[in-house]
Amino acid sequence: MRIQTVSTEPFEGQQPGTSGLRKKVKVFQQPHYLANFVQAVFDSIGDFAGQTLVVGGDGRFFNREAIQMILKMAAANGFGRVLVGQGGILSTPAASCVIRKNKAFGGLILSASHNPAGPDEDFGIKYNIGNGGPAPEGVTEAVFAHTRNIEFYNIVDCADLDLDHVGSFELAGMQVEVIDPVSDYAELMESLFDFTAIRALLASGFTMKFDAMHAVTGPYAKAILEGCLGAPAGTVMNGEPKEDFGGGHPDPNLTYAHDLVEIMYGDDAPDFGAASDGDGDRNMILGNHFFVTPSDSLAVLAANATRVPGYAGGIAGVARSMPTSAAVDRVAASLGLDCYETPTGWKFFGNLMDAGRVTLCGEESFGTGSGHVREKDGLWAVLFWLNILADRKEPVADILVDHWKQFGRNYYSRHDYEGVDAAAAAAVLKRVRDQFSTLPGTELAGRMVSLCDDFSYTDPVDGSVSRNQGVRVLFEDGSRMIFRLSGTGTSGATIRIYLESYEADAGRHGLDAQVALADMIEAAASVSQLQPLTGRDKPTVIT
Ligand code: G6P
Ligand code: ZN
Q1: Residue of the nearest CA to atom 9 in ligand 1?
Q2: Bridge-partner residues for 125, per DSSP?
Q3: Which of 310, 339, 345 is nearest to 113 (CA)?
Q4: What is the DSSP string of 198-229?
């Protein structure tokens, strides 16, 4: 077994996006491509000699090959110990949990989240720092800079390692520990939630379904929901993780989680339904014939947090990404909590949590989480909801109706246009920007425009500034229309239009969001000229 130094040349475009480096599997399969990136990470993160690295992924195609290479490179570069999930599996929140629990130097997570998997689909890798959260921009920029100058990488020359059995062995002076991917995480969940109350709820005739979408949460959900909490076998559907996620698109929304949606909107629908994504950090919450928007879900969790043991002492503050609706802002105002508005991307919450400024965070993109880890956490959100339901003993829909009565309703919807030509997408945003000085003071969708800008964020903890985080058209009554390009796609551009309108009158809380927002939707089309500029006349996905 010897350490090899392999000569290499830079690849174009190894710039980490919203959540690490995501490319087609075929791109990652090019000789040296992944190794270059991993070496660039190791060259950017400081002195880790003798320290611990956590490695795991969502089990998608190429996960195993990638992990073999990373372990051999970690040993060659001087890590003292690697903790790797059995079979190469760790959900993203579980990886965050393992990094924190073991005081690891950092972790490499292999995932392209909810993007489809398979030989012709997507793969991804990201580095998380010692707090368990995604590397901040300073680190990802350093990684990108290293990828552009790389000349060689270090790797141990040896046969593939057996990662399918829990246990430990040595690799060129580095300790490899193959760990059970579920147990640390399950223990953390049990420390936060009232498992006894949830067990009683599930034994009382309350019915639920959890859709793991053939992705990583299958084993976690089976162990926790069906194992610890006694939900009947079959509660977890699509629970066998597959390398191609069963050919599906494991994004828990109304479009892609159709198996679950059919059940929850069918005859004999269960009381509660939930789904998680490819790597287990996203969640969708449904009641019987009822969809909870992620923005509302965050607001409900904040308003009910003290019902849950882990948050019974109260929460420090809340944060949401800019495009997420302001529903949680209203809860924060009524509880006297600080509320932060950050750019899209979970990494922006890390500093706020580390500084103890916020406890709960959420994004419209089906992400919710708290300071228990530094990633959003799908199953955690499901357990939080179950704990609230066990305590309140009311249907999901009633909890929402009651919430809106108290705080008003922020009607909200996101319209995505996927796979748009990049130049056309840029033209749509430019078209809106070109009206920044003329729109304020005029009327759109029956409301007065108060301000237009490119959202910019100054991190209150470290003072770093992130510019151009979305084009905003803000209205005097608090309504908002936001245009943004996705930072997580791997082909073409995705335009996201986020629409929000506030309704205080409880008599008008029962509308379908698309109906309530119809005038905003029309105004967004006319302001952006999306149809003539892109040739698209309807969104690919509506959430
Ligand atoms: C990932 C990130 C989230 C982000 C989401 C959407 O899930 O972890 O923080 O909100 O992608 O990002 P996008 O740039 O595609 O809108
Ligand atoms: Zn994800």
Answers
A1: 345
A2: 21, 110
A3: 345
A4: HHHHHHTT--EEEE-TTSTHHHHHIIIIIIIS
Ligand 2 midpoint to CA 203 (Å)? 31
Sign of CA dihedral 426, 431, 432, 438: positive
pTM for the model stands at 0.94
10 Å CB burial of residue 232 (0-12, 13-18, 19+) is: exposed
pLDDT digits (tens, 9 = 90+) for 60-72: 999 999 999 999 9
pLDDT tens-digit map of 379-404: 999 999 999 999 999 999 999 999 99
- Cβ atoms of 419 and 231 closer than 8 Å: no
ipTM score assigned to the predicted complex: 0.95
Backbone angles phi, psi at 168, to 5 degrees: -140, 155
Rounded to an integer, the average pLDDT of 226-230 is 97
413 catalytically annotated: no
Residue whose tokens read 């629990």: 101
List domains and CATH numbers for the chain.
2-181 (3.40.120.10), 185-407 (3.40.120.10), 409-542 (3.30.310.50)
Distance CA 215, CA 221 (A): 11
Calpha distance 187→193 (Å, rounded): 10
Paired sense of beta strands 493-503 and 283-287, if any = unpaired
**What's the pLDDT at 310?**
98
Q: Which residues line ligand 1 (CB under 6 A)?
A: 18-19, 113, 321, 344-346, 363, 365, 367, 486-488, 496
